[in-house]
Amino acid sequence: MAGVTPMMAQYLDIKAAHADALLFYRMGDFYEMFFDDAVAAAGALDIALTKRGKHDGADIPMCGVPVHSAEGYLLTLIRKGFRVAVCEQMESPAEARKRGSKSVVKRDVVRVVTPGTLTEDALLEARRHNFLAAHARVRDSAALAWVDISTGAFHVMAMAPARLSPELARLAPSELVVADGEDRVVDTIADDLGIALTPLGRASFDSAAATRRLCALYRVDTLDGFGSYGRAELSAMGALIDYLEITQKGKLPLLQPPQTESQDTVMQIDAATRRNLELTHALSGGRAGSLLSVIDRTVTPAGARLLEQRLCSPSLALDVIHARLAAVDFTRDDTRTAEDLRTALRKTPDLDRALSRLSLDRGGPRDLAAIRGGLAQAAAIAATCHPDDLPDLLTRALANLTGFDALSGLLDAALVAEPPLLARDGGFIAPGHDSDLDDARTLRDEGRSVIARLQRDYAERTGISSLKIKHNNVLGYFIETTATHAGRMMSEPLSETFIHRQTTANQLRFTTVELSEMETRILNAGNRALEIEKRLFETLRAAVLDHAAAISTAARALAEIDLTTALADLARAENWCRPTVDGSRVFDISGGRHPVVEQALRMQGETPFVANDCDLNADSRAAIWLLTGPNMSGKSTFLRQNALIGLLAQIGSHVPADRAHVGLVSQLFSRVGAADDLARGRSTFMVEMVETAAILNQADDRALVILDEIGRGTATYDGLSIAWATLEHLHSANRCRALFATHYHELTALAGKLDGVENATVSVKEWDGEVIFLHEVRKGAADRSYGVQVAQLAGLPATVVARARVVLEALEKGERDGDAATPKALIDDLPLFSAAPPAPATPPPAPVSVPVLEMLEDIHPDALTPRDALDLIYRLKEAAST
Fold first, then answer.
1. Percentage helix, strand, coil, to 5, in the chain?
2. DSSP type of residue 734
3. Is 732 annotated as a binding residue?
4. Domain extent at residue 331
5. Is there a binding annotation on residue 632?
6. pTM of the entire structure?
């Protein structure tokens, strides 16, 4: 490359090997970027774009970020869809000069930062997992493997290819690795879910090579000890390991043995249902307003991650659900033990992430301190409870918190109370732990006092009280005086002792033989102390990694205890009940409430939430409630709250109800709300039909389905026909449990023909021409939708509301008279539908005076004595008779 400097030639070579990533090229205290990388990074980071040198006769664009604040810039770039290759200096400039004055410092990429491979606390959300997933297909079978390298969690699942979308929606990985040339369906799914898609060569998905990679990772001859895996599962796991080797440059994280999951062990919830129910994110996009935000009372990051994982994956195993419920019961009732546990948990660091950074050689003294603190709290928690009194889940968890006495003792003795962030800063090993380190520190520290004594001696010898001994990286230690003392310092006999080294504008600098010898001793002692500390850090890191498996188990146990006590605290504070969960198809809720809406009403100081019952008596047939009633009456809230109660019961939580009996729900489907998908050319109605089709094609007899206003997005008769046929299919083909809300009152007649369908309605009351929403669900059917009244509440012009009443009355009259042609006749009657000019507002009719009602307006029942109440009854009777 003629005309290219050696440094730029090095940059271009490294960049060529990482063409798909921005290259952070280390230059001293900065990471610098050049050419197109600089242009892209400057725009994304909003930093200055400058230039350095020329290439092919053109200026080379350049920008840079400081090394000490690089994490913030990395996070911005990752969130904007970039990958970043971090290129570090592999030697010091002094070492490079030994090969020649023009030698370039050796550099190499030490890691490639991608959305799924983050480990630094500053780049991660402490209370959420950050999954990297890989999807593999082998003929007609498929598998999904996922890993969180910040915690070491590693899972794999064999599945039908059609299950990819719901499983990705459940896991919400940051990045998905697929074979190069994967079909466009995967691209669409990843794009819909906001997942970064990374293609990888098909050789990475070879199942035979995957077996070798996994055996090498876990240092075993066979994977039989971990389980039996099909080719698709091996392919997905092997691709993950290969991708980690590429991005981490051979430094693989500490991964737990892969845990096999089955799609039959967790409740199936598709992406649309998760979105409609706002499980982890509100429809507005943030966490606030979601179910997770309302129920999360965990006090550790690991507990919060476990809660989100459980919420996204409700269990189908009755023994697991019952064990979790028993543990929540115990900590709800034993408030003293629960509070002691939560107090200790609040002091517990994030063991998993500290351990992961140490395994990747990205950790520091504070990560060792986090392990020390976490193990200390684990021991304290284990001593809090007596195993004889505990349910099995807590007994097993507590058993995994002990056995770290030797490691805890070593870390306690070795580390200072508040260690620095980086090992290279030194000062993290406690005095007395290592005699060689103590000796080096003594010499280093005494050397400073010797320098101070030497400065006083030189000041007395020269008679210059302002004389100072200073230090910089170029001259080392030197003696400095002002230029006004030049004559004295340069004359005999002082010139024989003080050797001139440098003159600046206002200062003269000298050295002495004695000072040079002392500098050598001090620098050697300081460097020796730092080298000893670095060696001790590696020893401590190795000791921690020797206990890595047990520490990971303890971390999971602490998360389990945190989640259990958090759910107990929630149940106690919110007056939630323990649900009965069994293998039946019952769904019987008494006094059920929507947890998010209830909290919102409480925070706004509004009226209390109106609780409602729901009894889907399934037995051996379908159980469907056909729910009618006006808009704004709470139909959608009722639908959602029952879905959430079923979901909460199966994560092992108490539920917002007075009583709940939930037969296992295998699938949860929701079609609530309306939205279009313009990017994919789908109208609101098309989206509705796609989601409805997914439900009708997948729901089994153990599913719980909530449907709201099916068919509303098209013509009246088309919509009614679709809603009718959908209801019949749910009843006769799916035979599931369902809540079906509709404004098509014609459907209520089906309750008399389909033995599994019952009518229910949300009560309203009319008063003085206005509609009052009671939010009470009762058996029966609504006779009207009160749409005109709701339109009036929304603020439609009075003329529009009046005209709507006229048209509605005419249409309803035609229906009552059995005149099927009336609607068309009305439409053809142009004068009837002609637009009327705005009329002056007419005052409402004067209210009719009712003496009894006037008397009741001023009555406060709570203030009445029994005698007052009796007198009031006589007065009311007298007023009513006049």
1. 50, 20, 30
2. I
3. no
4. 296-404+547-568
5. yes
6. 0.84
